[in-house]
Structure formats: C-alpha cells, structure tokens
Write a structure and sequence with these properties.
The protein has six helices and 24 strands. It is α+β, with helices and mostly antiparallel strands. The protein folds into two domains: 162 residues, no CATH class; 168 residues, no CATH class. It has a seven-stranded antiparallel beta sheet with strand order 13-12-11-10-4-17-14. A four-stranded antiparallel beta sheet has the order 20-24-22-23. Strand 11 and strand 12 form a beta hairpin.
C-alpha cells in the first residue's frame, strides 16, 4: 500500500471507514433488526450440537467417544410410529415422507427417529421430541427439539444444549458441511441428497445464517437463490477467512454484515473488515485489524476492499478478468478501533 494512501486511510477510518459505503438498496431488513443494533457475537461451530452437554462458543467439547460434531443426518431408515419410512425429504425446514402407502408431513414427524453420523464415524439416533414454528414472517422456519441416544435405547439426552445449560431447538438444512479444518474443501457445503444437517438454533453458524440473519437457502430474492449467500454467511460467522474450514473468531467481537440484494442492509458507519463469497474472504481491508495473523491475509489485503460497486455486477455475471472485483456476496464491518479505545492497526 502506498504511504500516502495508507495515511489517508488512517485519518478517514477514524471518521467513517476507508472504502466503506452504504448499500444502495433501500428495501430489505437492517442487520440491526436481527443482531440487536447490528452486532453479532461470533461463534465458530457449524452445527453447535452438544453431545455431552458441554459447549464452548457453540461448539461442544469432545468428552465422549461419540466425537464432538454430528456431520450428517440420513434421510434413509427414518422411523415413525414404530415403522421405517420408505422415503423422507426436507422442503425448506419441513419434513415429509411416505410409508405403507401413507404420506406424512409437518407435525406428524414428532417422535420420528433419524440415524446420524458423528465426526468419529459413530452412528447415533436423533429423536424429535417437539416441533414449533417461528412467528411470521419467519414461519417457514421450523424448530425441532431433539434428543440423542448412542444405541437407540432408553438413554435419551438433549441434543442442543447452550453454554448456560439450557436446551435449545435445532433447525434442519438440506446438505451437509465438511467439518475438516486447514485443508482444501474444509468448511464447504456438500449437496448430498441422501443427508441433511441439524444445526442448533443460536449456536451453530448454519442455523444462525438461516435465522435470524435471513439467508434461507431454499428461498429466492428477485429470482436468485439464497443458497450461496447462506454459505458465504456461514464462512463469515465462523470467521473462516481463508476458506479452508479454520475459524478465527474472537470472543465478544461485534460484526455488522450486509449484502447487495436487500436481505441485510448496512446501517453502521463502522470499519470494513472483508468481502465474502462462499469460498471465504475475497479481500481484507488492510486498515482494519482484519485478523491479520491468518495465513491468507497478505495475499488478500486490498486498499479498495469494501467498495459498494463490488456488489453491483452480481455473482451470476462474474467476469474472471475482474479478479476479486464484482463477485462479492457479503461484506462485514467492525466498530472503529479508535472509538473502542483500542489501537488502529495499519499494515504495509
């Protein structure tokens, strides 16, 4: 970065945010509405499930032989009313299935039992204890209160337990995620028609990005599927900057995110941190603290990161010749360090 530009950024960032701009869209929700003044406490887990009743930042501690994460829930072998269904599917967040010539859907799946695989390869049973819906306009999001058992016997325990020890519901999402870290493909979504993901509400990034943030992968905005925005959000919430599944979240870090399609708007004059797509951070604002210690920081730090026109072309019309520009799905920003009493970091 040229010294003159770096100095200008240092001065202007204390007032606004170097390279930052308001979304040009006037419709859609403000991120203030879903985060409480546009702020989110990051959590690094994908699913947030807690198999041993202990969790830290939404990711369970490995205190049992089952492992710490459920990586996939199968559509096959689902038991309902003592019988195995012939087929099961997920439409948005609502289950349906057939068995014995009868079709089941919605609340009929209470007490249904699914087979799930953990990251250690163990098979466990998940049982739906209760079902509820969010209030309109989010009544397309259904919540499932789950218990789990290692052997499908009588020892059923709550599946989603938050850091306060309270049981919370899970939100189902089609597809599964690669739970590996630090490798190509880590953290990526896999469109597996045979499996889906149960993510704990308010804990796992997969669930947070559906509700309350609003990137519902089964929905469209102006004819464009939100699936890619949901995955970009999962990367952002986990601070998976390098797109290899490694989270770099910071406890208590406030984050304001927004897009160019009207789901989330920019309502803050904070400092741009990064631009995002489904593969991680496309660029960093070098004036921000931007987790400069991550391996990919130097390769992606750009003085113009966060310019509003990076939204304008749209992800379905990306021109490879533009390189990093014009294909951004999300941007995020953090409070200006000087206003927090902290150091303003500038990198060469």
């Amino acid at each position: 970065m040229a010294p003159l530009f770096r100095a200008l950024c240092l001065i202007s960032s204390a007032l606004l945010a170097c390279g930052n701009g308001q979304s040009s869209l006037s419709n859609g929700r403000s991120s203030e509405d879903v985060f409480g003044n546009g702020e989110s406490l990051n959590g690094e887990s994908l699913n947030g499930e807690s198999l041993n009743g202990e969790s830290l930042n939404g990711e369970s501690l490995n205190g049992t032989p089952l492992g710490s994460s459920v990586t996939a829930v199968s559509f096959s072998g689902v038991q309902l009313n003592g019988n195995v269904l012939d087929s099961t599917s997920l439409n948005g967040t609502v289950f349906s299935g057939t068995g014995g010539g009868t079709t089941f859907s919605g609340y009929a799946f209470r007490r249904a039992i699914f087979n799930a695989t953990t990251d250690s390869g163990a098979i466990i049973s998940l049982r739906i204890q209760g079902i509820s819906q969010e209030a309109p306009p989010n009544d397309d999001v259904w919540d499932y209160w789950l218990t789990w058992s290692a052997d499908g016997g009588d020892n059923w325990q709550p599946f989603c337990v938050n850091a306060s020890g309270n049981t919370v519901p899970a939100i189902p999402v089609n597809g599964i995620w690669d739970h590996r870290r630090g490798v190509p493909g880590g953290g990526a979504k896999i469109d597996d028609p045979s499996s889906f993901t149960f993510a704990c509400k308010g804990m796992g990034a997969v669930a947070k990005c559906v509700f309350p943030i609003g990137y519902k992968p089964w929905k469209t905005v102006n004819g464009v599927s939100l699936d890619r925005w949901h995955q970009a959000c999962v990367r952002l919430i986990r601070a998976d900057f390098c797109g290899d599944g490694t989270p770099y979240t910071v406890n208590g870090q406030r984050v304001n995110l927004y897009d160019g399609i009207g789901v989330q708007q920019d309502t803050r004059y904070w400092l741009i941190e990064a631009e995002w797509d489904e593969n991680g951070a496309r660029c960093f604002n070098p004036v921000n603290r931007s987790h400069w210690f991550v391996p990919c920081f130097n390769d992606r730090a750009l003085a113009v990161c966060g310019a509003p026109f990076d939204f304008q072309r749209g992800p379905d019309s990306c021109d490879p010749r533009l390189g990093l520009f014009g294909c951004t799905l999300l941007m995020d920003e953090t409070p200006i360090p000087l206003l927090q009493g902290g150091p303003l970091l500038v990198f060469p």
